[in-house]
Amino acid sequence: MMLEFKPDFDRARQFWADFWQGKAPRPAIRVTLPRPGAQPQPAPAYLACFDGDMRLIADQLLAWAETHDFLAESIPFYYLEYGPDTFAAWLGADLQLSPERNTTWSVPIIEDWDATEIRFRPEGVWWQRTVEAAGVLLERCGDKLLICPPTLVANLDALAALRGPQQLMFDLATCPEKVKRALAQVNAAHTEIMAACREAFQLDRTGSINVEGAYTPGIQSRPQCDASCMISPALFRELVVPCLEREANDADAFVYHLDGPGALKHLDALCAIPKLDMIAWVCGAGNEDRDWRPVYDRIDRLGKGQWRYETGRAEIKDARRRYTSRKLAFRIHAESRAEVEDFLGELES
């Protein structure tokens, strides 16, 4: 497959295929630069698709990609979602756009567990909007860049969106069996939705990319469970780990988004999931100045790869020397293509 705005897509595709097998010759590096001689155009804003004209969004997307170079393992893509709870919307919840337009909130719909069937609702407005939007983007951009499906925020987070976080925590204490039954329904919906996304986004043709830019020639998932900050390690192992194992079986690549210090208590349980490839650790607002190297070291000792964000060159070289995992991915800042090529040469030497 060729991508107009990623001329070396075949090379990058093979690199990522080797990467997931632990056979890549160096860490994956992501860097995007303005194209020399072009006036850089901005990418469409997050959630522009919520109420925007998809044809105009496609025009802006193409203008952005045309004026940038996607170097090393970076691949141009558009992240099509209607907010963090898009998965819950496909199960029947409605979404409300925040006044700041930087996120959406789900409107809980479960009042009585016994009277509610949780299932994928392909007839629903939010899935129909997704299919229509994906169709426009694939028609306009399908041979130029990739279209990224929404993140499937399933397991306990989906129930928090459908029931409300506070009420869900109360239910875990008072009627845990009903919550477990609902989780089983979410798991079944996840498998069905993965198959539906595979068709709607033509993933068998293009492969799949996630919101952070990880690519696989197959199908991938980027799970999370922000609700995990509110439960004990024992309850996480009992309720969430089986869901994640089920989600992992639906995908070829599996990168877990671990968000905030309150979630670190679950790191051992997460890394015990055989099919989990990598941890994408986010320290949370206000914690940026802390030294998180002990967390990175622990992830490696537990046998998992690492998805890292803006990272210095010296730190990347040190990580490559220190860590046993060959699944390491970093984003870097650079000023020129030559600078990137020199750094890649250093990593490969």
Description:
- The chain is α/β, with parallel strands linked by helices and 349 residues long.
- It has a single domain (9-348), classed as Alpha-Beta Barrel (TIM Barrel).
- 42% of the residues lie in helices and 15% in strands.
- The protein contains 13 helices and 13 strands.
- The chain has helices at 9-20, 54-66, 86-90, 125-141, 155-163, 165-174, 176-200, 203-206, 233-249, 267-271, 293-301, 313-322, 337-348, and strands at 28-34, 68-72, 77-79, 94-97, 104-107, 146-148, 208-209, 215-216, 220-221, 253-259, 278-282, 305-310, 328-331.
- The protein has a seven-stranded mixed sheet. A two-stranded parallel sheet has the order 3-6.
- A hairpin with a 6-residue loop joins strand 4 (94-97) and strand 5 (104-107).
- Helix 5 (155-163) crosses helix 6 (165-174) and helix 6 packs across helix 7 (176-200).
- It is globular, with a radius of gyration of 20 Å.
- It starts with 8 loop residues before the first helix and ends with a helix.
- The relative contact order is 0.13.
- The model has no long low-confidence stretch (mean pLDDT 97).
Given the C-alpha coordinates, what overall shape results? globular
Number of helical segments with 4 or more residues: 13
Q: Provide the β-strand percentage band.
A: 15-25%
User: Any idea of the CATH class?
Assistant: Alpha Beta
Mean of residue pLDDT values: 97
Strand order of the largest sheet: 2-1-13-12-11-10-9
Major beta-sheet overview: 7 strands, mixed
Structural class: alpha/beta
How far from one another are the termini? 29 Å
Proportion in helices: 40-55%
Radius of gyration: 20 Å
> From the 3D coordinates, which CATH architecture would you assign?
Alpha-Beta Barrel
Contiguous low-pLDDT stretches (5 residues minimum) are: none
**Which oligomerization state do the chains in this entry correspond to?**
single chain
SSE string? HEHEEHEEHEHHHHEEEHEHEHEHEH
Provide the CATH topology: TIM Barrel
Q: Let me know the number of strands.
A: 13
Number of domains: 1
